[in-house]
Design a protein that fits this description.
Glycoside hydrolase family 88 protein; 4% strand; two-stranded antiparallel sheet; 15 helices; mainly alpha; Glycosyltransferase; disordered N terminus
């Protein structure tokens, strides 16, 4: 009888040990993802959003390596791509996507809420956008370090230098300048923060940022917005009468329309500024529609269609596809823009996507970087924009591509 009881006890112990071991080994590790990802085969039957996400994970096993980074850096490109992963995870809760995002946060967020490599004193609005990942992390874990990191980025916006009329400078080193890029970098985070933690008290200030760039940088003839506006009119690239830069850059316009559709997520319909922002989105979208190529894509310099040196560019086209599709899905834009978004996505997938033997995909014809001023000096000329380097699967294209694919359910 005693032996029988012992044998039963041993068997039960073995079963429990096996169950514990199975659970323990099945739990995915957050940051050591390279082994499984290097063996990933991307099925042709997957949706485009999953194809691109798995491609990026395979080519960049650690999420900080996005954009071929050689060392971990808190940066806007990682924030953009990983935000698209966050949206993808809502539609397809594959644990690999959540782990990829978490791996980035684990690399940067310290126990006291400080952020490695982040320098508040530079007042670079680009550094705000990766903070969008922190809301979800804090909501799920209630770990105070994420709240402190959110508060740190909010502190930057509180102290961010402003134009005399109240618009955020793009960076401390670019005084009195607002760039279209900056609206995406700062406003969706700001809107989510003020709604989440401040009862929405600063939504008027967020709307004011759009009002400033809309009133100063919009070209009355085309309805498009110039890449940058210098309130002081001191920069050599700035028009001495308007302060605007000389050209329309599709990615800058893409940042702007994405900023509108994402910030609007946090504006209640009865907020007095909501209709105004929806109006801005409609106006610029109508203007952009006039410059969509028959391929469905847009040119690097938006209004110079077919001019020598200009080319159909992936990041701006992806951003417009996303903003148009989300705008329709949210009820901000008329249904015709969904058709234009699908046409753009068709152009991306048929003309600019290359598929490798393992199913991974490469989005070509993306401008790597463009700006104004700085060293070496960037004059904002047509020749400047069309001669900047291109990069395959540049994150400014892949992130919006994933977001567009999700909004279009492609």
């Amino acid at each position: 009888m005693i032996n029988s009881t012992l044998n039963t006890f041993k068997i039960a112990t073995l079963i429990m040990s096996f169950a514990f071991f199975s659970c323990k080994t099945a739990k995915p590790e957050v940051s050591k993802t390279s082994d499984s990802q290097s063996q990933t085969v991307v099925s042709k039957d997957l949706k485009w959003s999953d194809k691109m996400a798995l491609t990026l994970m395979k080519r960049h096993p650690e999420s900080w390596q996005i954009d071929d980074a050689k060392a971990p850096k808190w940066d806007y490109v990682h924030g953009l791509v990983l935000y698209s992963f966050q949206e993808l995870y809502k539609k397809n809760p594959d644990i690999r996507y959540a782990n990829y995002i978490q791996g980035y946060l684990d690399n940067f967020i310290e126990s006291d809420g400080s952020i490695k490599t982040y320098e508040l004193e530079k007042y670079n609005i680009d550094m705000i956008v990766a903070g969008r990942l922190l809301f979800n992390a804090y909501d799920k874990t209630k770990d105070e370090k994420y709240l402190k990191s959110l508060q740190l980025l909010r502190k930057q916006l509180t102290e961010q230098p402003r134009t005399n009329s109240g618009g955020f400078w793009h960076k401390k080193i670019y005084p009195y300048q607002m760039w279209l890029d900056g609206l995406y970098m700062g406003e969706p985070f700001y809107a989510q923060y003020t709604v989440t933690f401040e009862n929405g008290k600063n939504l008027d200030d967020i709307a004011h940022q759009f009002e400033e760039i809309q009133s100063h940088a919009t070209d009355p003839k085309t309805g498009l917005l110039y890449h940058g506006w210098d309130e002081s009119k001191q920069m050599p690239w700035a028009n001495k009468e308007t302060g605007n830069s000389p050209n329309f850059w599709s990615r800058a316009l893409g940042w702007y329309v994405m900023a509108l559709v994402d910030a609007l997520d946090y504006f209640p319909k009865d907020h007095p500024k909501q209709k105004e922002l929806v109006g801005y989105l409609n106006n610029v979208s109508e203007s952009l529609a006039k410059y969509q190529d028959k391929s469905g894509l847009w040119y690097q310099v938006t209004d110079k269609m077919g001019k020598e040196g200009n080319y159909l560019e992936a990041s701006g086209s992806s951003m417009f596809a996303y903003a148009f599709a989300k705008g329709v899905n949210k009820g901000y834009l008329p249904s015709k823009f969904k058709k234009l978004a699908n046409k753009a996505f068709d152009g991306l997938t048929t003309q600019l996507i290359k598929v490798d033997a393992d199913g991974t995909i490469t989005l070509t014809q993306a401008c790597q970087v463009a700006g104004l001023g700085g060293t070496p000096y960037r004059d904002g000329s047509y020749e400047y924009y069309v001669n900047e380097k291109k990069k395959d699967n540049d994150p400014k294209a892949t992130g919006p591509f994933i977001l567009a694919a999700l909004e279009l359910n492609r």
